[in-house]
Amino acid sequence: MDYTYIDSHQKLADFCTSIETADYCAIDTEFVREKTYYPVLALIQIATEQHMACVDPLAFDDFEPFKKILQNPDLIKVFHSSSQDLEILFQNYNQIPAPVFDTQLAAAVLGYNHQISYADLVQQVTEVQLDKKYTRANWVHRPLTEGELDYAMDDVRYLMPVYRHLKAELEIKSRASWIEKELQAMSVESNYQLDTTQLWKKLKGAQKLKGVQLQIASLLCQWREQLAQKKNLPKRWVIKDELIFDIARLKPDSASELASIRDASERFVEQHAKTVLDTIARAHTIDASEWPKHDKLKILSSGQQSIGDCLMALCREIAEDNNIALATLATRKDIDSLIVNRKNSPLSQGWRFEMAGENLLNFIHGQTGIIASDNGIKSIVAP
Questions:
Q1: In the chain, fewer beta carbons within 10 Å around the N or the C end?
Q2: What are phi and psi of 369, to 5 degrees?
Q3: Residue 54 per-residue DSSP state
Q4: What is the CB-side half-sphere exposure of residue 220 using CA atoms within 13 A?
Q5: Residue 122 pLDDT more than 60?
Q6: Which CATH fold topology does 302-381 show?
Q7: Interatomic CA distance for residues 206 and 218, integer angstroms
Q8: Which residues, 6 or more positions from 295, have their beta carbon under 8 angstroms from its beta carbon?
Q9: What's the CA angle centered on 87, arms 347 and 294, to 5 degrees?
């Protein structure tokens, strides 16, 4: 199927009118973010069974027709590994597509590899081997070559037959309900809104900090985020994680002490010493009860760890019996969570509970046991 290259509002409006009554459309994006805080949206690829388009968001500004497509409740928006696409669409258009379908998520509950790549899924479903020649293309460069555009359009061209295949397979295996809640959660705006007070949790080495050190780290992470947003620069260009960690750990109280820290360049000290020192001082004025705290980790006893080993082995057998990847069904963290706090574990909810969680809880409560043989591990009703 040929595609339309859209570089004007009128072309976009005409195309969106042509697809508004479709049952579904496949969407993908190409973006660049190496030198900016905000990713630069360079292309939007859209396809239905009758129409395909490659939209150039760098060519014009009025995207109201596309925003209406994103919010059309009767038009399913199909993505593969949707998180980055949804995030960038939200940042650019303040819209989260709904309803959505994620082929990577669907593939996971149907027995394909956990977090399978788009290229591998296309190959397994359609037997088409996608060309990877333009994986590292500079998508903001203009004009794009015909080869680059064809490569980009393949990301939606084959997404359509993959979607149809997976949707049918979900119905045949009665697994469509398994992913309903997760698909709905993908369209919740709060999932894409940044809580700056929690940024410290992603700081490298944060687990080694405590007390006022964590408060300093938290304030510095918030300052870095704000400055990176204001200047539209990568966060690491403002201040690296390693330097935030060392500042929080050492708590310098003068520019000279700040300058003595290994990663604090002369330029950084000249530009930001006052802000950093003021931030450290402010952290000390905050009541200790309000300082960030690490989540309390429940350390499993040796007996609980042994139970976890048994449950993990049982999960492995259950996953094999149901032809899904073990990582899709449960991780060791999920197992430990079930042992310690049963209500918050993914295994205590939805399809995972039906497939495995109930069985595992019965084992924990002594209502079932397990037997081992050359054929694997199976659960049995306790005598």
A1: C
A2: -130, -175
A3: E
A4: 32
A5: yes
A6: DNA polymerase; domain 1 (1.10.150)
A7: 10
A8: none
A9: 50
Structural domain 196-290, CATH architecture: Orthogonal Bundle (1.10)
Cα 80 to Cα 116: distance, rounded to the nearest angstrom: 10
Task: Render pLDDT for 232-250 as a digit per residue (tens, 0 to 9).
Answer: 999 999 999 999 999 999 9
Q: Which residues pair with 28 in a beta bridge?
A: 45
Name the pairing type of β-strands 376-381 and 368-373. Answer: antiparallel
Structure tokens at 97: 């597509």
SS3 (DSSP) at 64: helix
Q: What is the pLDDT of residues 86-106, one digit of tens each?
A: 999 999 999 999 999 999 999
Residue whose entry in the numeric block shows the structure tokens 């690296």: 240
User: Position 250: which residue type?
Assistant: L
CB 52 within 8 A of CB 46: yes
Look up residue 98 and give its DSSP letter: S
pTM higher than 0.70 for the full model?
yes
Instruction: Kindly report the number of other CB atoms within 10 A of residue 59's CB atom.
Output: 14
Alpha-carbon span 171 to 168, nearest angstrom: 5
**CATH 3.30.420.10 is right for the domain spanning 4-192:** yes
Mark residue 372 as left, alpha or beta (left: phi above 0; alpha: psi -120 to 50; beta: remaining): beta
